[in-house]
Amino acid sequence: MIDFKIVGDWSDERFDVIYNEQCAGYQNFIIQDDGQIHLADLIIYETVRPVHRSWLQKIVNPFYKPPVPTPLRQNGIGQALLSRLIRLAKENKARTICGSITEDDEKRSPLLVRWYQKNGFIIGPPIETHLVPGKHSILLNL
Fold first, then answer.
1. What pTM does this model have?
2. Residue 42: how many CA atoms within 13 Å on its side-chain side?
């Protein structure tokens, strides 16, 4: 598990994940007047490069090796983002959270459908009226 923080506000319709003073991912959502929250993006980057000054380190120490990038996935970041969105949606009396899973999403994260199901979402056929019609629709009744 890595130590990260989530910044952003419900009214911003965006949360950012900060790790090692860098953006490690983000979540965008749209609050609609009818009480529906549209989950637009939930992105966790593969890695972040450690902040370092390799050119300076090489001058001081010719044997210096730059730090290895830190893998970010499978560290609870996505779960923390989704849990925060669900909690704030309930606090703000939203009725549902919906979105789409695209083919690209599934290629990047083959277990994504199962992950949303585990978090209480209903997986359905694509809905053409969604902002980005995908391979699957997702819906969570709050």
1. 0.78
2. 26
As a whole number of angstroms, the distance between CA 47 and CA 33 comes to 36
At residue 97, φ and ψ (nearest 5 deg) are: -125, 130
Domain segments of the chain as ranges: 5-141
In Å, what is the CA distance from 101 to each residue of 9, 93, 98, 114, 123?
A: 24, 25, 10, 11, 9
What would the pLDDT profile of 34-50 be if each residue is shown by its tens digit? 999 999 988 888 766 55
Q: Tokens representing 47?
A: 């890695």
**Around Cβ 17, how many Cβ atoms within 10 Å?**
24
Fold of 5-141: Aminopeptidase (3.40.630)
From 115, 123, 118, select the one nearest 139 (Cα to Cα): 123
Query: CB of 7 within 8 A of CB of 18?
Result: yes
Structure tokens at 119: 């978090």
Q: Which residues pair with 71 in a beta bridge?
A: 47
